[in-house]
Amino acid sequence: MRSLMIVGTASNVGKSIICTALCRIFTQDGLQTAPFKAQNMSLNSAVTPSGREIGRAQAVQAEAAGILPNEHMNPVLLKPTGHRTQVVVQGQVYDTVSAQRYFSSNKARLWDAVVESYHFLSKRYDLIIMEGAGSPVEMNLKERDIANLKAAELADACVVLVADIDRGGVFASVVGTLQLMTEEERQRVKGVIINRFRGDPELFDDGVRLLESYTGIPVIGVIPYVANIGIEEEDSMGLERFRESTERQTNDHRLRIGIIKLPHISNFTDFDPLFLEPDVDASFVTSPHQLSDVDVVVLPGTKNTMSDLLWLWESGLAEFLQGMDESKQFLLGICGGYQMMGERIRDPYHQEEEDIDEAVALGLFPFETVLTKEKQTVLVEGDLSKIYAGIKVTGYELHMGRTTHLQSLRPFARIRPAQHSDNGQVEITQGDTLQTRQGGAVDGVVSENGKTIGTYLHGILHNDEFRMSWLNRVRASRGLPPRSQSILVSQSREAAYNSLANTVRQHLNFSLLYEFLR
C-alpha cells in the first residue's frame, strides 16, 4: 500500500487527531501501521523506550496503533526556547540555533535524517500514516519545507487535506491551499476532510457539492465536532480549546486545582488525568488571585526555566508560592517547576538565555540546579518513599539540568531505568542516558507533611495509585471522605481511542480511501 499523508489548511485544524484515529482504524483492520511526522514543532514531547525524544503526537499515534514509539517516527523535532530553537534529530539534541540559522544551515543533514527514518519505518510496516506540519503552502517557507509535500514526494504518498470548519472560512482555506500548490502537488491530493462540523453533517451537503465542483477533488468526510476527546494534545493551543477555564464550579465537595500556565509551558499533558477525576475542578491560571481558593497549586514543566522563573516574580505568583507554607494548600512541581522550588538556577552555558547567568528561585527547599549541555531523556520506574511508601510508579525524565541538594532532604522516589519488552515491530536501541541510571537513584523531594512535592518525573499523575493517594490527602485536608477507586488512565485512554476511531470511521469514506491507497 502507499503511504497516506494528512496535511492541513493551517495549524491546529485537527491533523494529529485525524492521524491518531487512522492509526487505530487501520490497525483494527489488520494492517501493521506506524505514524510519521518528518518535522514537528512542539514543547509537548515524549520519551521512547530507547531514551530518545519525539513529539507527543507521534507517541500517542503509536499507542493508538498498538506499537512502541520510536525516534524514527519524528526525525526532526523543534523546541522553541525564546529567541532560539532546540533542534532534536532522531531523538537526540543536535543544536540550539536562531530561526535564521536553522533555515540557512543543516538543511542536508536534516533531510538525510528524514529520508533515513522514513525508510526505516516503511520496511517494517504495511502502512505509514504521515502527518504534515502547519500549512503545506506557506510560500515564504515552502522551498525549505521538509515536513509536508517534499515528504509526501519521498514516500509517494497519497495526500488528504483537512480543514477546520469551526474556525470559519473553510471554502477559502481549501481552495486557496490547493491553488497555491503546483499541478504535480495537486495531483497527490486525493481527498478533502472537513473537520469539527457542529450539527447535522447533511446540512453541509451543498457545501460538499460546491467544494467538489470547484476543486474536482472529492470530500471524503465531514467529521463532527467532538468536545473533550480525551486524547493528549500536542499543541498548547489545545489548552484554550478544551481545558482553560476562568470560572470555577461552586461545589464544596469538589477539589480545586490551579495549574500555573507558564509562558513556555511544556508537557502539559502531565495533568490530563486531573481533568478525568469526577470530583476535581482543574484549570490553568496566570495570576495570584486565581489561586486564592484552590486546594492544590501545580507548577509545571517549561522549555525556558530561567525566563519563566522571572515571569513568576514579575506576575506576583512567586510571592504567593513562597507564602504557601502557612496555608493549607498543596503544591506539586514537575521538572522545570521542581527546579524553580530550590534556591537558585544557574545557566553557565547559556542554554536558555544568552544574557542571564543565574536566577533566584523560590527558596522552598535547600537545593540548586545547574542547566547542563546534556539532556536527560529516560523512561523510569521506581518506588515512592516516606509518606507514600509502598507505591510503585513509572514516568519519564526529560530535562537539561542537574539538581544538587545542599542539605539532607526527603527524596520523593527512588528510580531506575524502566524495563520494556519489544513487540518485534521496532528495534530498541539502548541509549547512553539509560546507563547512567543503573543501580537506581533518588528523585525529587517531599516535605515532611507530604503537602509539597517536587519531582523530575513527567507522567507522575498518570500513576493511578499515587494520584488517588495524593488526592485523598487533599480531600482529608478539606474534611472530605476519601475515594476508594480512581479513574484508570490507561482504560480511559483506550476508550478514547476507540470512541474517536468509531466516530471517524462512521463519517469517513473508507472504501474510497482504500481505493486511493492501492
Could you say which overall geometry the principal axes of the C-alpha atoms support?
Answer: globular
User: How many helices?
Assistant: 17
| Low-pLDDT segments | 240-248, 421-439
Beta percentage is 15-25%
Which class of the largest domain in CATH terms?
Answer: Alpha Beta
Distance between the termini: 5 Å
Number of DSSP strand runs: 26
Radius of gyration computed on alpha carbons: 23 Å
The overall pLDDT, averaged over residues, is: 90
> Residue share in helices?
25-40%
Note down, in words, how this protein is organized.
This protein has 518 residues and is an alpha/beta fold. Helix content is 31%, strand content 25%. It contains 17 helices and 26 strands. The strands form six sheets. The protein has a six-stranded parallel beta sheet with strand order 2-9-1-10-11-12, with helices on both faces. A six-stranded mixed beta sheet has the order 14-13-15-16-26-25. Helix 10 links the parallel strand 13 (255-260) and strand 14. Helix 1 runs parallel beside helix 2 (56-64) and helix 6 packs parallel to helix 8 (205-215). The termini are close together.
